[in-house]
Specification:
Elements: E1 3-4, H1 15-26, H2 38-58, E2 65-68, H3 71-79, H4 83-89, E3 93-97, H5 102-113, E4 117-121, H6 131-137, E5 142-146, H7 160-166, E6 173-177, E7 196-200, E8 211-215, H8 245-260, H9 262-280, E9 286-287, E10 298-302, H10 308-315, E11 319-320, H11 336-340, H12 345-349, E12 352-355, H13 365-375
Parallel strand pairs: 1-11, 3-4, 3-5, 5-6, 6-7
Antiparallel strand pairs: 2-8, 7-8, 9-10, 10-12
Length: 376
């Protein structure tokens, strides 16, 4: 089998997280809403613990964590769930960036079609948005700013803390899609000016199908979200349905481990990166984005004259990699992220994304480099 190097698409399940998941699937399988017996009590206790574990990563409170199916749902709950409050206040302007995940861009498109104005901030070749462009875009009627923490295709960290400073004194709500950075880049999300944080479990060594939205209060005031679905009072009425206790408990365990093992995981990822670059740099690849801004577990690169599809096919018995977001893999259009960075169609179509984690086994990078060399 090839070595799996597509951790930005989804991560393997951490063994400790798997233990928790199986316990709540096989043994403590009660409904969190059942109040009359021990099985329900244990389930409720597990959900409370998971809220604490997720909240602790970003310095939030237990009751500020809303469990969802993942960051896509959380993003929709923020952008579409704030529509009514924005309309009530007559503030119909929101700001995002050109490099957001489709889970942010498409809900913004929905609002735009219903009469909202959307400003999509540009990025340059660095792959990072300039906070000053946000300062220029802000208006008195701006209701929401949504900027991702880490880009899923390039691994480039966005200047979240600088964005928070720009928003100081403005009543706008600040949302961060943290699917790729939660539990990996810790300090930026602890910035209290961030109102809303979207999380996906399967980017953090937890199962697919679970995530969270952290919605911080401003003093005693909650963010005025409205539910997208109705049919139950779960999650403060914002997300109806029986809570998937096993998935939630697993996410909580993954969140706690991310903080506990943060430095060791960083060191492992940095080591893999160094080995990859040592083997590949003699081939003179074009690295995507400002490299000091790129997370340690991601390389987005291209070898001039080599198409990404041909490269992935040639390497498929050695390593499993991708050429963009898994959510848009059925589309053959050039990446909107890479195009926003100023690349031509041919340049964008040459890029591949290699992403790993602390659970990644040893990679024969010399064999990978040799295979690429044979194609050049």
């Amino acid at each position: 089998m090839p070595v799996y190097l597509d951790c930005n698409a989804t991560t393997p399940l951490d063994p400790a997280v798997r233990e928790v998941l199986l316990r709540f699937l096989d043994e403590d399988f009660g409904n969190e809403g059942s109040r009359t017996h021990e099985f329900g009590a244990r389930a409720k206790q597990a959900v409370h613990r998971a809220r604490d574990q997720v909240a602790a990563v970003v310095g939030a409170k237990r009751d500020e964590v809303i469990f969802t199916s993942g960051a896509t749902e959380s993003n929709n709950l923020v952008i579409l769930g704030l529509r009514a409050a924005a309309e009530d206040l007559g503030r119909r302007h929101l700001v995002t960036t050109q490099i957001e995940h489709k889970a942010v861009l498409e809900p913004c498109d929905v609002l735009e079609r219903s009469g909202f104005e959307v400003t999509r901030l540009p990025v340059g070749a660095s792959g990072a948005v300039d906070p000053e462009t946000l300062r220029e875009a802000l208006r008195p009627d701006t209701f929401l700013v949504s900027v991702m923490q880490v880009n899923n295709e390039t691994g480039v960290r966005q200047p979240i803390e600088a964005v928070a400073e720009v928003l100081s004194g403005h009543p706008v709500y600040f949302h961060v899609d943290a699917a790729q950075g939660f539990g990996k880049d810790l300090e930026p999300l602890r910035q209290p000016r961030i109102d809303l944080i979207s999380i996906s479990g399967h980017k953090l060594y937890a199962p697919k199908g679970v995530g969270a939205l952290v919605a911080r209060r401003r003093g005693y005031e909650r963010v005025p979200l409205r539910p997208l679905m109705v049919g139950g009072g779960q999650e403060r009425g914002l997300r109806p349905g029986t809570l998937p206790v096993a998935l939630i408990a697993a996410l909580g365990e993954a969140a706690e481990l991310a903080v506990r093992d943060h430095k060791a995981r960083q060191a492992k990822c940095r080591s893999i990166r160094d080995l990859a670059l040592t083997a590949l740099m003699p081939l003179e690849p074009r690295l995507t984005g400002d490299q000091p801004l790129v997370m340690d577990h991601v390389l987005n690169l291209a070898f001039p004259g080599l198409d990404s599809e041909a490269l992935m096919v040639a390497l498929k018995d050695l390593i499993a990699i991708s050429n963009g977001s898994a959510c848009t893999s059925s589309s053959y259009a050039p990446s909107h992220v890479l195009k926003a960075m100023g690349m031509s169609d041919d340049e964008a179509n040459g890029c591949v994304r290699i992403s790993w984690c602390h659970l990644t086994p040893q990679v024969d990078w010399e064999a990978v480099a040799s295979r690429v060399r044979s194609l050049l």
